[in-house]
Each structure stands twice: as structure tokens, then as C-alpha cells.
Amino acid sequence: MGLAKKYDSVLDVKYGQDPALDALLLHFMSENHLEYTIDPLKNASSEQLRFMIALKEGEFYAPCSDWMFFMLLNQRLPERLLQKYIEQWKRFIHLSRDFCTDRELASRFIQLARHKFRMVLASPILMPSRLMKWFITIFMTQSGIDDPYLHIRRGLNRRAAEMVGSSEFDEMVHASPAEADLKGRIDDIRFLLDRLEIERLMRIATFTDHWNPEMFSLDGLRASGLAEEVREGSDLLNPMFEYLGRDGEQRHRILYLPNRAGGILFDLKVVKALLRLGHRVVLALKEGFYFDYPTFWDRDTDLELAKAFEGAHFVSEDKLSKNELLGIMARHPFIVISDGTREKFNPYRMSVTFARAWKECDFVLAKGEDLYDRLILNSHEFTRDIINFFRDEEGVFRVHFRAKPDRVRTFSEQYILRKAEEIILEMRRARAQGKTVMFYSGIIGSVPGQTQAAIEVITTYVNHLRNQLDDAYIINPGEHFEEGMDADDLMFMWEKVQRSGYINVWRFQTYFDIEKSFELMGRKVPPVWTGKDSTYSTGCTKEMHIALDVQRSHPELQIIGPNPEKFFRRREYGVGKFCDVAIDSCG
After folding, report:
1. Closest by alpha carbon to 460, among 513, 536, 532?
2. Considering just the CA atoms, what is the radius of gyration of the chain in Å?
3. Whether 454 contacts 478, CB under 8 Å
4. Which of 353, 187, 198 is nearest to 275 (CA)?
5. Residues 6 or more apart from 425 whose CB is under 8 A from it?
6. pTM score of the predicted model
7. What is the pLDDT of residues 74-101, one digit of tens each?
8. Tens of pLDDT along 47-67?
């Protein structure tokens, strides 16, 4: 039983339209092991997903191309889908037979995988990439081999390092352009040369996309015909160069996604050219084995790769907060992170750090045809501009530019800091006038679906305090809520304000405050608000930690509200949420 009606676009497939469709979508998510409500420790919440994908209300996202999604939902087995499944099966068989020397053991887990494969063919709703992830997990757990391609990747990197260090490579990158191009103003010539160098490096970085390991050699580089191809520039990368600007006028944060070992040595040349122009780069590698894709841990056992990564700052923490990530990016122009996965591009399984890096970067440079399938052949819109580049099987250099939708509003670090500075300036003026500065912390989004009601509750009570307290300047976070800002943005802004040292009294919302607010509004306290106070909010819990920390350096700070010990029973702050990660139905 598949789709009950024909849809013109994947964007028309939404939650909440039809119970049968909702059930089918949940079946799709659960069978692919991507449903957050079933396994919140492994899968991204919808809020984290929105860091990367510009989802509208009710919109459903599947991490595959449009044609693949419709085939899977129809639960039939057309030839095109069958071939994709067979590709995964053959790849698994080669992996098992090439790397597991114990034939009896290999036969056993191949038979296990065959049972799983038959089940998928009988009810084809599993994405081929997820099937491959399944096969890889079977291989790794049953064979005890956690990375069969480790030596292959090391060999590819060694050969690539020889090519990068060769005079042939140097000549390809640095050969002078035609004399006619070198006439005019110095700044125009400088822009032309920078542009030509980056385009040459990007073209060279893709020429090994379809090479097998035996083809990685200086002879292959000489015979590639690249020297002639890269001599003159083209307009293929115009959108990227227009975005980058001239002469470092604008400094951008760029997320770079490489696609294979060996090629990573050429990717790093592209990265270094971007760094020289003053941009900052975040490069994301795989968390673990996914064939010849470079992993975060490869440099530990690969001297050539470690040498190529000199100057890069590796960040192993997979759940960085916005504040922590921005702090690292400010200190280090080139950082390397893990995307948190062992598979093709899958936002449901990517780490919190990767999702935040995507959100904090200005655009994404995505290398490889695999990413073309996920980022270009997918109708869903993304929150950042994407430039996908690769070589097709005929060796033609391809570039695809995908702009983020106009409706996506981005809040830069500078914008958020300006808002924080405006509030700090008001606090400073209030202190200079002899007023008591009070910060009021309360529930904003920790009650599912009650964000607007929470703002009304806080605002009503703060207005009451303003009428009761003389010469008091009271900061109400609800008055500074801006549409489009998520909890990451707000917490980042408020922490700057809270650590300014200008707060005299920090008041945390109590149940009495909430009761009084509803009384002032002439309403009874709804059941969903009964018994609530600021200890219910994980955001307030984080703020209590900050308040106690600030109090250590400013002992005169008064903290009013529930006992601090009552706050610390809460769990981790929800990624991109206004509420606790424990509340799965956050609205």
C-alpha cells in the first residue's frame, strides 16, 4: 500500500493532510531509523533539521532525491530502484570478500545480510543509502574490522601528495594567463588572478573523482589534459566569485564538504587559497568508515594527511553550543569537524556541531556527484547558498549553484551582538541614573505550543513589577523576541547581556509570578501552566548557571527566585529549541 494519490512535487507531501499519509510517512521514517520521537539520541529534532533545511509548516523532508522518494513511498520495485539496491548489494559483497579473510565468518554475515536484503526487496521503503549503512554495520560488527579502507585511503593520500608536490601541479596552478588579461588596474588584475587560481584548484580537485586507486599517479596527472583545460578561466563559478567579492572586501565563513581520500589533498589547496583571501573555512569529514571518504580520524595514522592539515584546528566535540562554536571560529580561521555520520549526506544523523556550523557559515562548497544527488536533485530548499562542483563520468567539470530562498532570514553574529550591545547600553545608562537593573528570567517556550502565551505571562508580570518598584530598570526577554530567531540566537545574545556586569538583581520566575500574571489578565491558570516555574525551563537552568558564575565575579548580584538546586535536575538544552530536549512534542 503506497501513496493514495499522485503528487506533482515532494513539497506537496506534508504532515497533517491525511491520516493515511501521516502513517505512511511515519512508516518511512521508522523503517529508515530516522524518526526523532522513536530514537531522539541518534536522530535530529525538527528544530535541528531547520538549521539546514528551510522547512515550511508541515513540510516533510526525506534525505534523498525526489524520484527516489516517490518510488519508495509507492512501495513498488521499478527497475531504477532495483538497480540502486543491487549496487549496494554488490558493493557489500566485494567489501566482505576483499577484506574478511575468514571465509566461514564472511559466509555467515553475508547470509545474514541476504535475509535483510530479501526483506527490503519484498517491501521496498528503505533508502539505498540506508541499506548500505545497514550492510556496513553488519560487516563491521561481525568481522571486527572497523575500517577496511584505512590503508587504501592512506595510499591515495600518499600518491596525491606526490602530485601536489610536483612541478607539473605547480605549473598548472601558477602558469601565467594570456597577456591580454593582465592589462588594466592592479586591483582588477589581482581579482582576476585570485579568481583564476581558485577555479584552477577546484577543477584540479575534481579530476580524480572517478579514478581507481591504480590511476593515482604523476603519469595520470600528466596525461589528464588538465594543463590545457585550466589555462583560461570560465564563467562557471561566477555566482561564487560574486558572493566572495573582491580583495577581501567581505570576509565569509565557508563550509567545505570534500568527497574522497586523495582528492582531499587538492581540496586543502582550495581551502588555503580561500584562507589567503581572508575567509574562514569549516571543513567537515566523516565520523567513521564510509569507503574512500576521508574521516575525521585519518590524520592520526596518515603522516601525509597530518602534514597537509598543519595549521588546522580539529574540533572533536559533537555538541558544541553556538557560543562555543563562534568562539572557536573567531580564534581559528580553519577548523575541521566531523559531520557525525558514516553515510551519504543525511541531516537526520548529522552532529549538532555540523548542523550549527552549517547555520553559522555563509555558504556551502559541496564537492562530488553524491552531493549533487542530495543537494541539487532534491526540491527542498536549504538555509544557505550551495555551490556543488564535480566531474561527471565523461570527465566534464560541472558546477551547480543553489541559492537559499528569500524567506530565509539569517541573523549574523554581528547583528546579534549589536542587539546585545544596545541592551547593555540601556543598562549602563540606567545604572548611571542610579536605577536598579533587574533581569527577569522566565519560561518562554518550555511549555509546548505556548510560546506566545508565555511571552504574555512574562510581559504582564514585568509590567506589574514596573508599577510596583521605584527607580528600577527591568529587562523583559519577551520584549526582545524577534520573529525568526531560534533559541540558539537568543541564548547567545542574552549571555552577552547577562555577563556584562550591569545586573543588580536577577529574578527567576516563580509559580506565584505566573498565578499573579493570570490574575492580572483576569483569567484562571490553565492546567498546562499549573505548577510551573522557571525551574521547568532548561533555558532558565542554563541562565541560573550563568547567574551563579557571574555572582562569583560580582558578589553584589542578588539572585531571587527558586532555590538553585531545583534547577539542576533538568536535562541538556534542546538544540534549536526553546524547550528541554526531554519534551519531544515541543511546539
Report:
1. 513
2. 27
3. yes
4. 198
5. none
6. 0.84
7. 888 999 999 999 999 999 999 999 999 9
8. 889 899 999 888 999 999 999
